[in-house]
Amino acid sequence: YDSGNFKITNYFNFTNLSELQGRWQLTQDEMIIHSDTFTVAVPPRSADYIFLDMPPFSAGAGSAFGLAVSG
After folding, report:
1. Cross-strand pairs, 6
2. CA angle 2, 34, 1 (to 5 degrees)
């Protein structure tokens, strides 16, 4: 992760990741505060970077944040 850029690795042997739809969720204290979907074209057995356009957020004292990415 680097300022919204994430490395995505395609471990499939024959499927381009463009055939799938990804989803991400940003949570604060286990409550979803933002989510969205994404697509990315990564050929089989290769990797690339994607940018997830996440909203700005600030962590208050005692808050816990999480990011879940699935495809």
Report:
1. 50
2. 10
Average pLDDT over residues 15-37: 94
The model's pLDDT over 32-67, given as tens digits with 9 standing for 90+, comes to: 999 999 999 999 999 999 888 887 777 778 889 899
Per-residue tokens: 16: 């381009």
d(CA 9, CA 40): 11
**Residues 6/49, Cβ–Cβ less than 8 Å:** yes
39: amino acid identity, one letter: T
Q: Tokens in use for 7?
A: 């490395």
Partnered with residue 25 across adjacent β-strands are 35, 68
